[in-house]
Design goal:
With 539 residues, the chain is of the alpha/beta class. 37% of the residues lie in helices and 12% in strands. It has 2 domains: 222 residues, Spore Coat Polysaccharide Biosynthesis Protein SpsA, Chain A (Alpha-Beta Complex); 172 residues, no CATH class. β3, α4 and β4 form a beta-alpha-beta unit.
Amino acid sequence: MARAHLAAFLLLLAGVECGHMSKTSKKKQIQHLKEQRMMERSNMRAERSAKKTMYHPIAASWAASGIECEAPLSGTDDFVVALASDDADPVPIFAAINSTLTNTRRRQLDFVAFVSRDCAPKLKALVRDHILSYPDDSHLPKAMRRAAVRVSVCVGLDAQLRQRPAMRALAMLANSTRVKRKELLSSYNFAAFYLPHVLQARRVLYMDTDVIVRGDVHELAQMNLDAKPAAAVEDCTQVLRKYIDFPLAEAYRAAAYRRVQAVTGDCAIGRGDGPRPATCEPLPRSMPANDTCVFNRGVLLLNGEIWRRERMAERIERLVVDFVHSKGALFRAGVSQPPFLLALANHYFKLGQEWNVRGLGRDAIGEPEWLNIAGAMRASYPKYARAEKVLTDHMAAVARLRNAKRSSLLLKKAAYARTTGGPAVVPKSVNPYARGDHYPYVCPNAAAAKILHFNGEVKPWRMSDSTVAHATPAEGALCFWTDLGGNATRPPPNPNRRHVEAEDAECANSDIRKCLRSCAREWHKYVDDLGLSHERRAE
């Protein structure tokens, strides 16, 4: 095959010399031959990868040792809320736990926090002093009583994960320039994929530590997942091709499939994609379309039995190894997100958007995302047309702190012609907003949010109280705390919300401008009782 392409290339060059082809045709054919040659090399690399990559199933006893927990949750086989972080600061994890407990009506709630050895004693102290020591509430009506809570703080998960061959292969990239953000190589970045094996629970709710829970997680414990291995919130502002080189991914998938087909015995072909013996590698699924919407794993509901039965963690591991063998070309962005997206594409239960209202750690919103949010809001909220003008005007007022010229253009509605029906957009050479970024990031659907996700670089625990009260674009998102008269409403008041101040009475449809405040204020409500200053939290 290679000799044939070489001969074709030489003939093409001869044609170029003789002037038998137009310049455009010559360029196209040369480019085509180059692409063919690159694909041949990719296929050869994929075949080598398939031959030397062995399948390593996860045994049921895999996590029986190596993980140390102060209060093991033996016997817990129902619903567990899990968090994992290698950060030494325990306050974000405490905020996530406290907000979840404060807003649930579930009578028993189990938490497991996998942390570093530096963080463990500090988190245990916070849990002991501010959660487990909560005063007796037996005198209160049953509906108002606090849930019985167990919090298990565990260490050693990172060492356990590094035992997996896929994680060891990934560690070889620690000194490589192929992965620019080395923190993405952390084993904690893959912790969520192994939780059904570590906890052996019926259902596990995994959350990033930069979240605040405002809804009742009992709904997730009871939700029908249609026999899917996991549930997550779809994000159609991005598609799979942003993260994955599809031609290369198909080459590796086809090579892996041929390898599995060649195995004899209990792993013989003809068994489909159903259950296979533990020693047999699961058959690779067909590739999804490259324009398939992605989904965010910051909030991930894991269906434990089905996740283990379909060997989702092993599927992800296989893709990680392919990434290492592909010289880093397989994944275009991220390290843990692409294999997760490929393994679960079109094979997960879609949660409502309210379960992961994200982007609150950002300072700007891109034009496609703004249009997506604005369109969804118009469909759900009849009063959004008026609210949109308020949002854009307020965004302009806040943006004035960063760039007076940008603010001036924004106030004239030139930059928002596509969303507000204003005048035509001014030339790009004049309009600083021409690339579509709008400052600050405004979250108009926060009022209906059941989980707020502060993904992004601007974390609320790095902001002082004064900063939160008067947020600027560089200091995080603004949230719109009203339902605008739509069908979706914020979670009902819960008498157990001891950390949450009463809703601001002046936030009403009559003056919606007063409903636009820093999103970080909601996060701070759950740590105010700690008495920790911003300076101490930053240490």
